[in-house]
Amino acid sequence: MQRVDKYLWFTRFFKSRTLAATVVTAGRVRINGARCEKASAIVKAGDVLTFPAGSLVRVIKVVNGGERRGPASEAQTLYEDLTPPPEVRAAKPPTPAKRERGSGRPTKKERRETDALSGDDRDD
Fold it and tell me: CATH class for domain 2-81?
């Protein structure tokens, strides 16, 4: 059994315990589906935590509590990741930029046409 903020810090989901506590007190962490607003809430083996981490919503199952904040390889043994894989979107080929004729800077072709109309021949 361990405090939720300390557990999230031990498992290296947050860089500091203060950041973990801030996320918990903002009500952004759920323990077994119930919203948690106290950093002192206790988590134990078998609990499922749901919280935002970066651009993902992480879902993890607590395997056991940690003794210390060790290396990442040690931290990964403290939980089981249940986060669903992100949706893979089909890559669309980029569409070429379109601009209205006459707007913005002229293209080389348009400049040649303008020069031809004005009789300005730079090809001496």
Answer: alpha beta
